[in-house]
Request: fold
Amino acid sequence: MIAEHILITIGAALTGNLVLVHLTGMQLVLASSQTVSSALRLGVTSGMVLSCSLPILYATSNFILEPYGWTYLHLPIAVVTISLCTIGLAKWQGSGRLHFLGPQSSQALLVMSSTSVLAAPLLLLDQPLLLSQVFAYALGMSAGLVLALVLFAALMQRIDAARVPGPFRGAPVAFLTLGMLALAVSGLNGVV
Amino acid sequence: MTFFFGLGVLTNLVLAVALTLLCEHLAWRLKGKIDPVPLEKLAGERDFASIFPGFILALAVPPGAPWWLLGVAIASAVLIAKHAFGGGRNAIVNPAMFGYLIALLSYPAQLGAWPPPSSIEFSMGNWLATGSSTFLPVTPDAVSMATPLDLVHHNSGYLLADLFAERPQLRGFGGAGWQEINLAFGLGGIFLLRRGMLRWHIPVAVLVSLTICAALFYDEGSSASGGSPLFHLLSGGTMLGAFFIATEPNSSPSSQRGKLVYGALIGLMIYTIRVNGDYPDGVAWAVLIANVCAPLLDELERQKAQRNTEEHSRS
Reply:
């Protein structure tokens, strides 16, 4: 049972990585690539939003929307839930209890909630999981997002110091790097 | 390697060097810096570093693979993985492994078509044919045989002991031909270590990590076992990867501790991908995964050194 939950977490982090496998929220990764520490803060923040919102969305979907046939409300409810989680986290952060996340996180959260975080519950709909497994899945998704953000930021820090040819500077080399990162992760296909 | 797999190995080497020089020439011309580009610049000045990815790719693709397969791999390696990032020291991943993986994903059948080693069935015709098939339209299955790693990977329902007894490719510890080649690459690596041309950290970490993983999960040959530690060390591209691919300086960490972690990660990934992944040999994937982690390892080391300096100055 525990092994199954661990496998779900590892699978969601690596072989089902939100950014590198499902290719969602790439603009977030590209936007948060200044330093490793800022990417880490952003990743942790988004992971917290994911971990809060996914179980709520799962419960809403399975216990309210599916039984009453209101499945067309999946998307609006996902948007509302994620927004509420984001606002709640921003307020909590504003109270000083989450000072380690830094001042820029609350702004970034708003960007995130519309992209990668929103994709996660939609991906969750296709997975036949129990509620406890959804927690493991959310944790894995969050860890995967942090991993992608941090690895990409470290790579971009190194590329910033390189003599990249003019036509490749900026977005082209960032997309190439992201592609290489996605290629590397695809080697783990079948592992979990 | 030529003795076991035929003339195609030499054909690959010659073709790969020529294609690498061609791609380097193209890259320098596109940069518009030097016209005409001198040959020593194309070859990477005195150490011939530029043709090294071509050399590695020539050894990584099956002997007698079609010329365009090497062309795709080398063009991806030189033009995308190397020169798009600024060339030479600026590459973030090992160019040879990036090119190999692009070719593997694009043409998996051709990259899996290894000829039978001459120690199993020697035929002068086949030995010579691997050299000519580079330029002739020969189907991949015509002169190919499953590698030891392919056999173990695709026959997970069999007892390993039965599989080793039945299949001639699995003779010895790492498979006929493959174990000798791996031993030769290992000896070459040790020679370079003794000459001081390689640092020991990465190869030792790769081999130790792979051995520990294989030993931990080896149960003397049940169908669930991934193979003995010796099988993993002496099969596939283990020694070539540990000594000549993973040690590529531009895409590996600079600190000693970083190198050890990097090597250990490669060993762990090789074992994981070989036993649980979709691919029979995981060396190229493992190196690419470790390559993308290398800047983070460097950054962590830098932050740690910075913290130590601050603590030292405070005290």
Summary: The longest helix of chain B spans residues 283-314. Chain B touches chain A through 33 residues (CB under 8 Å).
